[in-house]
Amino acid sequence: MREEQQSDGDVSELYNFSVDRPVDKQLFRIDAQKALALTLNKGDQLKLDSPDQAQICEILVLDEQGQSVPEALSQQAVSVAEQTLKQLQGKGASAKQLQQQFDAWGIEESHLNKALQFSGEGSVFLEVAEPVRVIFIAAGEDMLVEQHTPVGEVHLTVQYASPWSEYLPEPLAEVKEEIRIPRETARSYEVKAGEWIQIIDVSGKQCSDFLAFDRAELVAGNELGLDSTATRSVMSRSTPQPGLFSRFLASDMQSMVEVVQDTVGRHDSFLMACNPKYYEDSGYFGHKSCTDNFNRVLSFYDIAPRAAWPAINFFFNTGVEPCGTVFMDEPWSRAGDYVLLRATRDLVCASSACPDDIDPANGWNPTDIHVRIYDAENEFPRASAHRLLPEELPRMTKTTGFHKPISEMTKQLSEYRGYWVASEYEGWGAKAEYLACRERVAMIDLSPLRKFEVTGPDAEAFLQYVLTRNVRRLAIGEIAYSAICFDTGGMIDDGTVFRMNEQAFRWVCGDPYTGIWMRNKAREKNYRVNIRNSTDQLHNVAVQGPESRNLLREIIWSAECQPSMDSLAWFHFLIGRIGGPEGIPVMVSRTGYTGELGFEVWCHPDEAELVWAAIWSAGEKYGIAPLGFDALDMLRIEAGLIFAEHEFCAETNPFEAGIGFTVPLKTKEDEFVGRQAIARQAPESRKKLVGLILDQDEPAEHGDQVFQGRYPVGIITSATPSPLLGKQIALCRVAPEFAQAGTELEVGKLDGHQKRLSATVTTLPFYDPDRTRVRS
User: Which SUPFAM superfamilies does the UniProt record give (predicted)?
Assistant: First the structure.
């Protein structure tokens, strides 16, 4: 390997290219209880919106000397930033995090005396009169479990007076090295084991191929680089995927880089970097290619050139058809999107800014790529991006308030609905966790459930309209399980509605989009109702099993006006405390997802670790175990409980999903969304959700077709081995003609015909069919 890298040639001219996608508008999100700082120029126009029409935004405006100049943004009266001060006076994590932001930006308490106020109602439009630094604060106090005033996010749109062509996000930490890769070129660089590599698409829709080699092996004269076959084999994927593996390996079967953060979610893992043959076959002779650029920059390390380099293709939008055909389209990446990697050994890396302008690979217009290197001493959380709406900024995976004690017990974490949850626990395993729940008591973190506070004079009428259940029948302190449907009758979600008081409800569901849909319906029908997302103010664990009541009885205190743990009825809740009248505020509901006697304990995230510790400590004498999502799946299938994208979707109505009892067509006189479509369906024609007991030990899988004779009559929605029955079981949606208990069917494997698994239809649930245990 040569000791010195040579210049890539004169690339200065490449910085002066014209960009065909100038950007004059940008979206920002001010997250709840956090702040956003922007430098703005004269003529920039701002639009502020509160999604729930209730979140206050307090705005500080500073000039270049750090003096408050609110008049540079608005002529409205200024006031003290009261919500910000109240939050800062708190003792929780949100106060500390906000203070850390202020310290980093040099914001002092005196600045808070001259704030502009945005009430949250409607949209506010502002224009910048001179260059300023603006601090936007979505502030508010922490919400108690019995309150309905969560702090929400605020959306900001900036219309720039001078369009820009690229966006570099704020560094994740102090940057060790900045590397610019001009369009149509590549660069090589070195990183040490443990260091972090952030690859940024500065203009959006720009692919960047990535190569890495073991530096020590290069010094020894050996070429050991990323290997697609090793990576796919270890990750159990035979073809390129429209996403990233968690780690990428060399041919020695050891990791080279780990993927830690990804704000896009759509890439290609190991197709070829563009190469001369591709362009020549397309009629573009002599066109620049990533392969040629890599050969040039890697020659400095005596790495032999190739006709085509297999590479990780960041931001390259590919997919694979069921037949195996690979297709591509414009990238999903937007300006500022990035991938964060961590080197697991000393590496020589190469990154490109792809020159492809003959197809949609780079949006028809190649632009720059930017790379940042961070020291190994930094720590960044693992996170991937998702979006609730196509146009919004990415939302990165979060940890729940219970993450610390959980992460001390397991490394088997997976992403669910934007949060990290435990799949199973080290030293237990799914079957042991399952048995603990069936025989003793177990605890699981269900904080990813979305919570929405529905309040106002029309709260009851609104929920009566959007939920299938008859909400008017609910008493204060009572809970109902309900579906929520589209106009077509297809299910958006299922969940539980808590009646907190006469004009306040709490809707708990799985899909975060449900809240957006409900707000749209409220505006469409002019309901006087507020719908506020309280998910990040209300985390919860489920305590399930025959000993759950005995455990919680020892630690839950409730006032005389509230039910006790002994008197708490099924599908009711109480407001209490852990550890006596001065203890941790909690809500306890007699609900669960296991088919066992069980409860859920709800608290503020700041109290979550104390809640976990109190329940765990009290549960040790009962043989408490942690419960992961793998064991939960076994429990809920045995109990015949449904799961999104398995038993129901937007094309499945509640009857077909097996929860027709949530749709009282005869006794609920009020109109509700989806009623007419559901009523038009002849009951005799509805497919049925039934149970299947397989006659052999081979498992069925979600999506397997179910046959009688040659033709399919149903589909497996969920399946699991049942420790209770000692057999494989499944939930199956089947044509009504074959839904009778005792009917013999077959689950198709391979092509559905070459291999069949015999099975018998049974009623649901498999476990405790009369639900005596959950009602006990």
Answer: Aminomethyltransferase beta-barrel domain (SSF101790), Folate-binding domain (SSF103025)
DSSP state of 13: G
Helix axis angle, 608-619 to 548-555, nearest 10°: 120
Q: Domain count of the chain?
A: 4
Token readout for 95 is 């106060």
What is the four-CA torsion angle of 355, 359, 365, 366, rounded to 10 degrees?
A: -20
CA 421 to CA 447: how far, in whole Å?
9
**Distance separating alpha carbons of residues 53 and 712, to the nearest angstrom:** 49
pLDDT digits (tens, 9 = 90+) for 488-532: 999 999 999 999 999 999 999 999 999 999 999 999 999 999 999
Q: Amino acid identity of 758?
A: S
In a domain? residue 533: no
Mean pLDDT of 206-215: 97
Beta strand extents in 682-743 (DSSP E only): 688-694, 705-708, 711-722, 727-734
How far apart are alpha carbons 494 and 507 in whole angstroms? 10
Measured at the CA of 37, the angle between CA 35 and CA 42, to 5 degrees, comes to 140
Both 134 and 210 in a single domain?
Answer: no
Convert the pLDDT of each residue in 172-183 to its tens digit.
999 999 999 999
Of 488, 199, 228, which Cα lies nearest the Cα of 368?
A: 199
237 pLDDT band, cuts 50/70/90, is low
Region label for 584, one of left (φ > 0), alpha (ψ between -120 and 50) or beta (otherwise): beta
What is the C-alpha to C-alpha distance for residues 716 and 756, in angstroms, rounded to an integer? 13
Q: Which pLDDT tens digit goes with each residue over 352-377?
A: 999 999 999 999 999 999 999 999 99
The domain containing residue 121 runs over which residues?
23-164
pLDDT greater than 50 at residue 727: yes
Per-residue model confidence (pLDDT) at position 323: 78
Q: Is 594 in contact with 636 (CB distance < 8 Å)?
A: yes
Q: Is 632 helix (H, G, I), strand (E, B) or coil?
A: helix
- List strand residue ranges (DSSP E) for 517-667, in order: 530-533, 539-544, 556-558, 573-578, 584-589, 598-603, 625-626
Contacts of residue 108, defined as CB under 8 A and 6 or more positions apart, other chains included, come to: 102
Which tokens hold the place of 688?
A: 């049925």
Distance CA 558, CA 570 (A): 17
Contact 530, 455 (CB under 8 A): yes
- Give the end of a domain, one of 636, 654, 675: 636
Same domain, 50 and 149: yes
- Cα torsion angle, 295, 372, 199, 231, sign: positive
Contact by Cβ (8 Å): 572, 589: yes
